[in-house]
Fold:
Amino acid sequence: MKAIFVLNGPNLDMLGIREPEIYGRETLADIAALCAQTAARLGLAVEFRQTNAEATMVEWLHEAYREDAAVICNPAGLSFFSVPVLDAVKILRTPYLEVHISNIHGRDEFHRHSMTATAAKGVICGFGSYGYVMALEALARQMPGK
Structure:
């Protein structure tokens, strides 16, 4: 079975510390564990990663293309300005689902418009870490034999 890449962008390694009133108190390690448990329950394999570098995110999306892996991504701040990440997402042949912990549509003007979401099959936002579970369940429903 192909892995599902769960990719996380800048500053998500600071979850639990950074603006807990917006992002909650869970850490990225908590979310990684939740994704691993959910994937096991669904019979899926996940590769969970985080980077603070735009170039690394682009390389990971290229890797997902080469491995024909579906992608769940919280691009974080890259959502709002990264043409290179958007272009890399457009290369994918597999589903790309975008997850945001906060409801970006209810935030300030700068955080409302995800450029990368324009290439997504679907976007889940505002459900905290449960958004990752929802994305994994959505992908599982789309896989043959599920």
Summary: The chain has a mean pLDDT of 93. The chain has one domain: 3-142. The two ends are 13 Å apart (CA to CA).
